[in-house]
């Protein structure tokens, strides 16, 4: 499934999600099962399947990691942690040090430090998204059907970095929720 085609969106990383959300709502309304109550069983099944695909497409495009994965996949590049280049030792050491600092802040119940680390990692995450956007836009520019694989392969490691940032930010959120309860 090509989530971009399903939502009528260009194959780009940098998308106007508010426009796509509106498109998603319109498609969801048009495909709502109640609209097919009088249709044949096969038409109801087809509408339900299409509605499920539209919902999945929306989940993919609104998540930066899944959106990037979809764009790499469309270009024929396998993604997933086992298919992507390994992160550099320097990057891994840096992330390890940040995780240790987060664990220490959690143990000390230093929420100011937890928030500070989260903000720092959020900044890194946004920068990784910008790098991905630039590389993907360059690869797909003027050639949506046959993007430049070499350009995409140069930014593929950034997708791995983005995964690390997301896990870190998920942990920050979990600590904040734990502290709030």
What's the SSE blueprint?
Elements: H1 3-6, H2 17-30, H3 41-62, H4 64-74, H5 89-107, H6 111-140, H7 149-180
Count the helices. How many?
7
Structural class: mainly alpha
Order of helices and strands: HHHHHHH
Uncertain runs are none
**Overall pLDDT metric:** 93
Domain module tally = 2
Number of strands: 0
CATH class of the largest domain: Mainly Alpha
Give me the oligomer status: single chain
CATH architecture descriptor of the largest domain: Up-down Bundle
Protein name: Co-chaperone protein HscB homolog
Subunit structure: Interacts with HscA and stimulates its ATPase activity.
Function: Co-chaperone involved in the maturation of iron-sulfur cluster-containing proteins. Seems to help targeting proteins to be folded toward HscA.
Domain J: 2-76
């Amino acid at each position: 499934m090509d989530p971009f085609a399903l939502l009528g969106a260009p194959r780009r990383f940098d998308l106007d999600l508010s426009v796509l959300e509106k498109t998603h709502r319109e498609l969801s309304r048009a495909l709502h099962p109640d609209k097919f109550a009088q249709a044949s069983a096969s038409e109801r099944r087809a509408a339900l399947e299409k509605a499920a695909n539209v919902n999945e497409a929306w989940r993919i495009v609104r998540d930066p990691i899944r959106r990037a994965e979809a764009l790499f996949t469309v270009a024929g590049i396998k993604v997933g942690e086992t298919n992507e280049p390994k992160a550099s030792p320097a990057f891994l050491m840096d992330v390890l040090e940040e995780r240790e600092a987060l664990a220490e802040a959690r143990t000390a119940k230093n929420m100011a430090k937890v928030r500070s680390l989260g903000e720092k990692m959020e900044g890194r995450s946004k920068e990784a998204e910008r790098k991905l956007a630039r590389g993907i836009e360059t690869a797909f520019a003027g050639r949506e059907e046959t993007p430049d694989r070499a350009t995409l392969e140069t930014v593929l490691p950034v997708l791995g970095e983005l995964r690390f940032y997301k896990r870190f930010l998920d942990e920050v959120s979990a600590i904040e929720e734990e502290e709030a309860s």
